[in-house]
Design goal:
Layout: H1 3-18, H2 39-53, H3 68-83
Helix pairs in contact: 1-2, 1-3
GO molecular function, one term: acyl carrier activity
Subcellular location: Cytoplasm
Function: Carrier of the growing fatty acid chain in fatty acid biosynthesis.
């Protein structure tokens, strides 16, 4: 899965689960400040992302995540590690 495909899937999840307009979801969008994703929503988001990997995600992997691009980068890294 490419980073662009991951971004598109994340946009869909954020729109469907949190009713965020897709136009607001950019790679630079900050989860808390720009998209109003709080800590409880973040946990919910991690659960929603699990099917992209086919396994559980550890919340620790997302400690440094601040933007949508950070999510893409973390997931991409996890997918590459899993394939290796």
């Amino acid at each position: 899965m490419t980073k662009n495909e991951l971004f598109d899937r994340i946009v869909t999840i954020l729109h469907d689960s949190f009713e965020i307009e897709p136009a607001r979801i950019t790679p630079e969008a900050r989860l808390y400040d720009d998209l109003d994703i709080d800590s409880i929503d973040a946990v919910d988001l991690i659960v929603q992302l699990k099917p992209l990997l086919g396994r559980s995600l550890q919340p620790d992997a997302f400690k440094s995540v601040r933007t949508v691009q950070d999510i893409v980068d973390v997931l991409y890294g996890l997918i590459r590690d899993q394939a290796a």
